[in-house]
Amino acid sequence: GNFPLAFVGAGLVTAAASVVIGLPALRIRGLLLAVTTLGFAVAAERWLLPQSWMLGSTKIPGRPIFNDYALDRGKSYYLFAVVVFTLCLVLSRNVWRSGLGRRQRALRDNEDGARAFSVPATRVKLETFAVAGFLAGVGGALYGHTLSALRPGDFAIGSNIEVVALVVIGGIGLLAGPLLGALYIIGIPRFFTDIGSSGLAATSAGWLLLILYFPSGLAHFVRPIRERAIALALRFDHRRVSANERGGEVDASAPSFASSLKVEAARKRPTSGNGTKRDVLVEVRGLRKSFGGVHAVDGVDLDVERGETLGLIGPNGAGKTTLFELIGGFTRPDDGRIMFDGHEITRDTPERRAERGVIRSFQDAALFPTLTVIETIQLALERRHPTGTVPSLLGLTGADKSKYKRALELVDLMGLGDYADKQTGDLSTGTRRITELTCVIALEPTLLLLDEPSSGVAQRETEALGALLARVKSHLGATLIVIEHDMPLITAISDRIVAMESGLVIANGTPEQVMADPGVLEAYLGGDMNAVARSGVRVKAKRAAPKRAAANPTKKKAPTPPTATSRSKARASASNT
Predict the structure, then answer these.
(1) What share of the chain is helix, strand, coil (3-state, %, to 5)?
(2) Residue 567 and residue 552: Cα distance in Å, rounded?
(3) pLDDT of residue 516 exceeding 60
(4) Closest by alpha carbon to 564, among 541, 543, 545?
(5) N or C end: fewer C-beta atoms under 10 angstroms in the chain?
(6) Closest-CA residue to 474 (of 260, 266, 262)
(7) Share of the chain above pLDDT 90, in %
């Protein structure tokens, strides 16, 4: 038969099998995923391979012949194996540097964050299984033709463990990591055959010490060399000179973060009020979510108009973040309905909502620790211009080059030039916030959910942060819902504020109305009238129990007093989310 096609066929068959195996493992992450796939390897060795239609007791592999030239198991086959290895390395490099590779690493680092960036988690995982299976199939075919006879014991479970070990020891975050691990684990015993049992024991102990003190493996020593090489190359890269020459730590008070942000003219947005027809973008009705006996969100009704900035406040445990999780799709409601731009999204996945334009941030701004700043921005650009799987495999980089160019423009816009090639895991919280906002611009959301954007930003810098948020909103023409504990910041940027306590909306109105509401004051300051007096707010009435505020308050209409039923229900549901 055709020897090269046999290798391709082995890769394709194994890729298909890997996808089938991967389907039940889609809901499993991290170490449990490795254990699950390892379990299949055990089943393959003990049951699948011994079947008569597989290897049985013994199978004789075909003679490797290419164009009537026999590849013996000596030098010629070795050179052939080197060629195949090089092609596989090129394929891996293409994937690593492509949109598919960035999506894979983002899912590994932070699955929820990746889904919030519209990364289709299920599809990318299955594609990853397929690519890995293809490479494993080609490797198995190479190995099989080095044997005179194939037996089930030739594919023992220990070989799988060794493969995982060499990847971990070489460094997961480095493309050449598996090669380094193979040289360390397999190369040392093969090249130094006279080291004896004591030498092998020392080598095994070296594995343990390496992982114990350097969890990133041998990549710990290689990555600094690579970063120095990149820094040296950037000195000759005129596209980044202006950004890199700025110098200094980027923070919320830097000109590039606030006053120097070059935004386009604000897009014209539909407005409401003054007799114009209301344009509701988000409509929440009867939304409920309980965890055990805790009512985290208890029948919330809420409307958000297009182009509005809605502030969401409340003490810890009020239900704010749970409401965000429900709107963003990361938590399923027990009851209720969510409408977005005329479409019901109650059961949509987070990535489907992100495709529609619902983008959320996270309080810790963790992003993706092993992606660089420029790669993170490129990942955000994938929402509008996704990279296909086949172009990623073949290294067709036309679309990637345009995304890279746009990412460089955004890096310069936000003053992140000094950090473009640094991994986000190495950045300060403030700089990650700037990177996150840069990604927001790249994502072009219709609705942006910001979870405590001032978290990790120095108090003196929040005024500049507020100005930047206003500019970003104007630039995007987006609607914002913002959770924030910094009262001066949230009152400055919000058109309207909703206050929550114990899963209920207790106030809904302009910042001035909500900040003077006695229920809001007591939620934050308690019943201590001295504390209320020191707050500087004049209280006109005693505070009632938490009540549901109207989804669309009218300024002239007096609030409806809470009923006895609503009081008792609020007391029963009062607890942390």
Answers:
(1) 50, 10, 35
(2) 21
(3) yes
(4) 545
(5) N
(6) 266
(7) 33
How far from 258 is each of 33, 374, 475, 499, CA to CA, in Å?
44, 20, 13, 28
Tokens of 382: 């994938």
Which of 318, 287, 294 is CA-nearest to residue 520? 318
CA distance 397 to 447: 31
Partners of 262 in beta bridges:
none
Helix (H) or strand (E) run with residue 7 in it? helix 3-22
- What distance in Å separates the CA atoms of residue 515 and residue 487, rounded to the nearest whole number? 9
Q: Are strands 479-483 and 447-451 parallel, antiparallel or unpaired?
A: parallel
Tokens of 396: 């067709």
Tens digits of per-residue pLDDT, 107-141?
999 999 999 999 999 999 999 999 999 999 999 88
Alpha carbon distance 216, 206 (integer Å): 14
The residue among 444, 370, 375, 443 whose CA lies nearest residue 408 is 375
In 3D space, the residue among 296, 286, 332, 327 whose CA is nearest the CA of residue 310 turns out to be 327
Q: Any idea which residue has 């070296």 for tokens? A: 206
Domain with CATH 3.40.50.300 in the chain: 280-357+445-573
**Residue pointed to by tokens 């590039």:** 256
Q: What is the pLDDT of residue 261?
A: 47
Full strand arrangement of the beta sheet holding 335-340: 294-305, 280-291, 335-340, 343-344
How many whole angstroms separate alpha carbon 451 and alpha carbon 330?
Answer: 14
Find, among 480, 520, 476, the residue nearest to 499 by Cα: 520
Cα 326 from Cα 320, distance rounded (Å): 10
What is the per-residue pLDDT across 348-406, written as a single tens digit (0 to 9) for each? 999 999 999 999 998 888 899 989 999 999 999 999 888 888 888 888 777 788 889 99
- Give dist(CA 446, CA 246) in Å, integer: 32
Phi, psi of 373 (to 5 degrees): -60, -45
Distance CA 420, CA 310 (A): 32
Summarize pLDDT for 322-345 with one digit per residue, the tens.
999 999 999 999 999 999 999 999
Closest C-alpha to 3, from 88, 84, 86: 84
- Fold of the 280-357+445-573 domain: Rossmann fold (3.40.50)
Q: What distance in Å separates the CA atoms of residue 456 and residue 27, rounded to the nearest whole number?
A: 32
Question: CA 313 from chain center: how many Å?
Answer: 26
Q: What are the φ and ψ backbone dihedral angles of 261, each rounded to 5 degrees?
A: -70, 115
- Cα 32–Cα 131–Cα 385 angle in degrees, nearest 5: 100
> What are the phi and psi torsion angles at 27 (to 5°)?
-90, 5
372: Cβ contacts below 8 Å, ≥ 6 apart: 420, 421, 422, 423, 424
Q: Report the relative pairing of strands 447-451 and 358-360 from DSSP bridges.
A: parallel
